[in-house]
Amino acid sequence: MSSKSSGSAGDSPATGRMRARDIDRVNARTLLDAAFEEGELAVEEYHQRSERAQSAQTLGELQRLTADLQPSAKTADLTPTATRSRRRGAGGYPPGTRARDTDRQAACTLLDAGLADGQLGTADHRTLTELAGEARTLGELAQLTDDLQRPADARPDPVPPTSRRENWLAAGVAALSIAVAVGTFVAVARPATPPAGPPAVDLGIIQPLVLPRPKLTEAEGISYFRDVYRAKFGDALVDELDLYPGYAVVTRAPQPNRKVHYNYFGGFEQTDQPQTRDPKTPSVDLSALNPAAVAALAAQAPALTKVEQGAVSYLDIGGSGAGPVVRIYVGNQANESGFIEATLDGRITRTVAFGG
Q1: Packing angle of the helix pair 101-116, 122-134 (nearest 10 deg)
Q2: Residues 192-225, buried b or exposed e (16+ Cβ, 10 A)?
Q3: Which of 112-149 are b and which e, b meaning 16 or more Cβ less than 10 Å from the residue's Cβ?
Q4: Are 57 and 104 in contact (CB under 8 A)?
Q5: What span, in angstroms and rounded, lies between the C-alpha atoms of 304 and 340?
Q6: pLDDT tens digit string along 290-345?
Q7: Which parts of the chain fold into alpha helices (H)?
Q8: Cross-strand pairs, 270
Q9: Per-residue CA distances from 334 to 34, 90, 91, 147, 276 (Å)
């Protein structure tokens, strides 16, 4: 199939100048959606690239917006051929390929193993972990871990997913071999038939891919947020964290006398400039949080707070004079509410019921 019919960008200078179709713009934005969901793009850059993809006039413009992204397994068939043909590093991708949150998390896991088995000292581990949380490309992550001996169960380097089209091609070659053998025999006795016309091609619009994300007030969502938070910042420390079903609000201290607020909608967006922070402010290490126990308590919270037809509004996690605390807030459509306070392992310390 020629590049003109496939819509691949960047196969040749002429292809790069070729006009982009609406379907090409849809495909490019689908790739950007998946990259944003997996942490390759920050919020601002995601919006900028999406706007440029929407107004792109040529295939070359679209290819440049997605060339440094890892294809998701679910969007591999949308990835331009030129992206797959670039020179690749040891892990299967060029060093400048954008890193996902899972790639940063895997690097942090390797650094933890290096600390545990004596390859790294505490200071080196802390510095390298912070750098891993800030790394934007696979090459930057590789520089941080290339000199470490890897444990046997270490996560392998990311490699491009196999395209479903490539799998179909392999199966088609085998099927064709059989068909040729059978057809040769049948053709001896079968009368000639007129040649068939070209096969019909469905050019319907590809629907944008919607990637699910767990509710952040449930066990899977709490664990998910903690993983992406650590991959982003290199540690699990927060001053305060509010987990809503679909998003999160977090206050973090980049240094003892400064704090920064972030919103999380699939990616972290800083909402203001650093502000003054009391160095004595207690922080919470989310590593000590038990997501399953907290989620189980949240499931009981409407009954315990006596909020009729109530549901969990959000979880508030922060420090206090008595230590870290989780507050589970419950509300209903009648604006009736209550809350539960608990420890990080899900033990109730206080219940404030509606009307009580």
Answers
A1: 170
A2: eeeeeeeeeeeeeeeeebeeebebbbbbebbbbb
A3: ebbbeeeebeeeebeebbebbbebbbbbbbbebbeebe
A4: no
A5: 8
A6: 999 999 999 999 999 999 999 999 999 999 888 999 999 999 988 899 999 999 99
A7: 3-6, 13-17, 22-37, 43-55, 59-66, 81-84, 101-116, 122-134, 138-145, 164-189, 219-233, 291-304
A8: 262
A9: 38, 59, 55, 59, 38
Distance CA 298, CA 222 (A): 12
Q: Alpha-carbon distance 247 to 289, whole Å?
A: 18
| Alpha carbon distance 331, 179 (integer Å) | 65
Question: Which pLDDT tens digit goes with each residue over 139-159?
Answer: 888 888 888 887 777 777 766
d(CA 134, CA 118) in angstroms, rounded, equals: 24
DSSP-derived letter for residue 148 is S
> Average pLDDT per run of 10 along the chain, which is 356 residues long?
40 64 86 86 89 88 88 64 40 79 87 84 88 88 85 72 50 51 47 51 47 80 92 92 93 92 89 90 93 94 92 93 92 91 94 84
Tokens encoding 19: 């006009």
Q: List alpha helices for 136-239, DSSP H.
A: 138-145, 164-189, 219-233
Number of residues in the chain: 356
Kindly list the distances between the CA atom of residue 282 and the CA atoms of 42, 107, 239, in Å, as whole numbers in the listed order. 28, 28, 7
The first and second tokens of residue 111, run together, are: 């650094």
- Amino acid 320 reads S
Is residue 62 within 8 A of residue 20, CB to CB? The reply is yes
Instruction: Round to whole Å and give the CA distance between 346 and 290.
Output: 7
Two tokens at 99? 């890193």
Q: How far apart, in whole angstroms, are the C-alpha atoms of residue 233 and residue 133?
A: 5
